[in-house]
């Protein structure tokens, strides 16, 4: 299997003979394994809707997507829970071994490998219902040892030539109540070091994808001082000076999140005259919205791309798109501009949220709360959401966007 490294601002697959292949990511999130279903949504193929793992892989390959981020839960890993009955059609998904959680994950990875699609496993939730505000929470029954046991299980069972397309772990999704560099129990820098140490003992080839923490900040954009709150997973302001030190070099990938009004309205997406509760909002011009998106992205994490050291990509971004109810399409434009920025700043790519048509958002437009759903696939799990799909076409121009390389096994 490749040795995945993070250097020169890129993810690099390194062969046993030293051949290096840089890879940029045009990826999707495909959720479900972090829930009580214990399997990605959509594999229930029936008369009404649903699909197969091979069809998902073929769809992604046809549209130049080269990677999938798969959320999982500590609970499902430790219990080795099989998929819930009825949520996977095992006759049409014959490639999937649904005996237990690990066999499901292993065979899903192999199904994606058939199309040379890379996999990032996201340590997403502590339990199937609760994400956890840092990487452990004894109040909901998940200790540091529990989390590390789950990492040990995944990294020992998903490493090797059979699973060559697994690039690593997103070490903990959205640790919004963790600290950064404090030395306390909830210090995410220390947490990442502990998690990566266990991972690398089993699988030295993997990368550790590191998200940010959450706080309030100010940034000056266009001469105006703006206050902003980090997106969950997005706050990497301190990472320029304080970084996790893994036991193996070139293994850190910065993987922050950046979203839109559909997740939570942000004052910086709107102009003068917008009220604090967004009951009145003023949409910005394309030029001004771009300045706000670029300015906040750069302040949160984008500056990390400047020194071309560790790779920087977006672990989650986008969301509601074609259904944007703003008259001037602020939510939709925010996604378009996010892609523009990650391209211009030469990020290592990103994983859009999400493939699932059940993806739910809370605001549409800024002044209207509710439950609004949209994904890359329509509700039948077969038809593409064409306009949303096309939004990511600009990423096809990334110079190192390519299928994940499966290097030949060399004789020892």
UniProtKB/TrEMBL annotation:
Residues 26-358 form the Glycoside hydrolase family domain. GO terms for molecular function: hydrolase activity, hydrolyzing O-glycosyl compounds. Pfam families: Cellulase. The keyword Ribosomal protein does not apply. GO terms for biological process: cellulose catabolic process. Gene3D superfamilies: Glycosidases. Keywords: Carbohydrate metabolism, Cellulose degradation, Glycosidase, Hydrolase, Polysaccharide degradation. InterPro entries: GH, Glyco_hydro_5. Belongs to the glycosyl hydrolase 5 (cellulase A) family. This is Glycoside hydrolase family 5 domain-containing protein.
């Amino acid at each position: 299997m490749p040795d995945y490294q993070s250097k020169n601002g890129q993810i690099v697959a390194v062969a046993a003979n030293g051949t290096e292949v840089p890879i940029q990511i045009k990826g999707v999130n495909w959720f479900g394994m972090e829930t009580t279903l214990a399997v990605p949504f959509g594999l229930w193929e029936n008369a009404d809707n649903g699909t197969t793992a091979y069809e998902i892989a073929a769809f992604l390959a046809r549209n130049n997507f080269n990677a999938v981020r798969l959320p999982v839960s500590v609970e499902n890993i430790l219990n080795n829970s099989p998929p819930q009955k009825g949520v996977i059609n095992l006759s049409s998904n014959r490639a999937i071994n649904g005996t237990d959680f690990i066999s499901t994950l292993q065979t899903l990875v192999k199904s994606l490998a058939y199309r040379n699609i890379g996999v990032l496993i996201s340590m997403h939730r502590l339990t199937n219902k609760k994400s956890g505000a840092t990487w452990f929470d004894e109040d909901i029954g998940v200790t540091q040892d529990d989390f590390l046991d789950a990492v040990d299980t995944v990294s020992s069972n998903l490493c090797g030539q059979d699973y060559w397309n697994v690039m690593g772990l997103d070490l903990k999704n959205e640790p919004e109540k963790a600290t950064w560099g404090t030395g306390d129990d909830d210090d995410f820098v220390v947490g990442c070091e502990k998690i990566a140490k266990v991972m690398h003992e089993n699988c030295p080839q993997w990368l550790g994808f590191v998200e940010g923490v959450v706080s309030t900040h100010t940034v000056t954009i266009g001469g105006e001082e703006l206050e902003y709150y980090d997106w969950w997973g997005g706050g990497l302001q301190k990472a320029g000076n304080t970084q996790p030190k893994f036991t193996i070099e070139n293994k850190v990938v910065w993987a922050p999140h950046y979203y839109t009004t559909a997740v939570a309205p942000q004052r910086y997406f709107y102009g003068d005259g917008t009220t604090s509760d967004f009951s009145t909002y003023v949409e910005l011009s394309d030029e001004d919205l771009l300045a706000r998106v670029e300015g906040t992205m750069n302040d949160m994490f984008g500056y990390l791309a400047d020194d071309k050291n560790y790779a920087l990509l977006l672990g989650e971004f986008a969301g509601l798109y074609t259904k944007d109810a703003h008259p001037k399409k602020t939510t939709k434009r925010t996604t378009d501009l996010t892609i523009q920025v990650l391209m211009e700043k030469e990020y290592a790519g990103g994983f859009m949220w999400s493939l699932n048509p059940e993806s739910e958002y809370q605001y549409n437009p800024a002044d209207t709360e509710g439950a609004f759903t949209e994904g890359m696939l329509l509700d039948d799990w077969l038809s593409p959401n064409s306009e949303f799909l096309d939004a990511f076409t600009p990423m096809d121009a990334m110079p190192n966007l390519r299928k994940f390389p499966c290097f030949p096994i060399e004789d020892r």
